[in-house]
Structures are given as C-alpha cells and as structure tokens.
Write a structure and sequence with these properties.
19 strands, 12-stranded mixed sheet, 11% helix, Fumarylacetoacetate hydrolase, domain 2
C-alpha cells in the first residue's frame, strides 16, 4: 500500500466538543508487526495489551504517530457485525415518510476498509454513491437495553462511508450487493469517546468539494434510540458497528476520486476510488 502520511496527518489536528474525558483509540500495525490497539496521546500511540473489546491495560510501549511506519486499520474486530440505518436524516428522505423507528439493514465485515485504502467499483454497476455517516462502536454486550442506559454500551464513535450502488439498490429485491460489496464500508480513522455523539459537525468532500454538510443533531433517531432499538431485536456484541445514516443528497463516485468524511472531534476518513481490475 502506498504511503498515506500526507493524507492522514490531519486526524491529529482536530478540536472536540467536550462531553467527558476524551479518549482516542486506534487499531494499528507498527512496521510488519501484529495488529494492536492503542490510545492516542498527543503525537504518540500508547500500545495496549489485551483486547480493547475485552480485557486490556495500558503498557509503557509508545509509538511515534509516524504514518510512514504506522498503518491504521479498521478500528473494530475483524468479524464484527456491521449494521446501518436507512433514512435517518429528514434531508435525505425528500418526499419519503419519516420512519417511526430506526430502519436497519446489514453490511458485511468484508465490506470494511480502513483510512487510506481504495473503494473499488465492481463491474456491473454504473451509479455508485458516497454516504458520509457517524458510526457507533459497541463496547459491551447489549440485549434489550433501555434508551436511558444505552450509552453505557457504547465505546465511542468513528467516521464511516456507506458506499452504495444505487442502480442495484433500486432494481434488486435485496440490498446485499448494493450495500455490502467488498470495500463498500470505509471506517476510521479512530474511535473517540467522551464527545457529544448527538451534536457533531459532519462533512463529506469529493475531490475537495463539499457535498454533504450537517450535524448529528439532525438525525431523526439519536445514538441512544438506535442502540436501544437494535438491541431489542439482535444481541449487540463488543466491536459491532452501526452506521447511523447519511444527510442530504449523494452523488456518483468515479475512479481517481478522493473521498473525505470529516466529523468533529474524530478526524478525517480519507479513501481513494478505483475500478475493479
């Protein structure tokens, strides 16, 4: 993978909306080593021992946040569940009715790619779109939790891009390939806790041009409502991801594009686009 240092450095240069103690978690590889979890401390990463979604503790092992040496990975377990919402912003619904409860669907773990990797447009589709989204990261097992308690089960949030083949979405009976093709779920660069999840600025840029701009306070269903509703029907497990829907209009992406999802307090999820080879 080509160096993405110049792409990723801005993730360190953000301000956050204070909601509690802000903690920034990353999953990374240093050199050719094994994947590990860490906590970002200034311009360094403190490596953790154990599993972020199980038992872990801080170590004294520090890594410079040098992205020529550090590769950031999708900040979730490899076999997590990936859920997503349809129609969670009024600006995206246009003339469709507002849903009474969160309307979910599934993507796949094989859809996930980290910051810096390319979205691949598969053969057979001619209308693939971006969708900038806040992503909820579940921190502990949740089943039938109340809205009042739901945030206790959230580790934090990250940036996501719900890549969608609109022609398949419109014409297929199911959304499995429209939403869950390989590379159709960029996610990262880090998980952030301690910020006000329901009031963050969100922006989507395509080749530097702003395409979507909203606040997560515009969501129809809040983070607590989404987690509570989902947990009534399926057991949410540590590391599961929930993409919370996209605002406004979306447009087609093309090989050679650069897509940037930026969310206040989290950073920038930047991915290129290429055609399948």
């Amino acid at each position: 993978m080509k160096s993405v240092c110049k792409w990723l450095w801005p993730i360190l240069m953000f301000s956050s909306t204070v909601f509690g103690e802000v903690v920034k978690y990353v999953r990374f590889q240093a050199g050719g080593g094994k994947a590990a979890y860490g906590i970002v401390e200034g311009e360094k990463i403190r490596e953790l021992s154990g599993d972020l979604f199980g038992d872990w503790k801080r170590t004294n092992k520090m890594h410079a946040f040098d992205l020529k040496q550090i590769r950031l990975l999708v900040p979730a377990p490899e076999h997590c569940k990936v859920l997503a919402l349809a129609g969670n912003y009024r600006s995206h619904l246009t003339t469709q009715p507002v849903p009474e409860h969160p309307e979910g669907f599934f993507k796949l773990p094989t859809s996930l790619i980290p910051v810096g990797e390319n979205v691949v447009i598969p053969p057979g589709t001619n209308d693939v779109h971006f969708e900038a989204e806040l992503v909820i990261v579940i921190g502990k097992k949740a089943k039938a939790v109340s809205e009042a308690d739901a945030l206790q089960y959230v580790l934090g949030v990250t940036c996501g891009n719900d890549i969608s083949a609109r022609d398949w979405q419109k014409n297929d009976r199911q959304w499995w390939r429209a939403k869950a093709c390989d590379t159709f779920a960029p996610c990262g660069p880090m998980i952030v806790s301690g910020i006000k999840y329901d009031d963050l600025a969100l922006e989507m840029r395509q080749n530097g041009e702003v395409r979507q701009k909203a606040r997560t306070s515009d969501m129809i269903h809040t983070v607590s409502q989404v987690v509570s509703w989902m947990s009534r029907h399926i057991t949410l497990e540590p590391g599961d991801l929930i993409y919370t829907g996209t605002p406004g209009k979306t447009t087609a992406i093309h090989p050679g594009d650069t897509l940037e999802v930026e969310i206040e307090g989290i950073g920038i999820l930047r991915n290129g686009v290429e055609a399948a080879k």
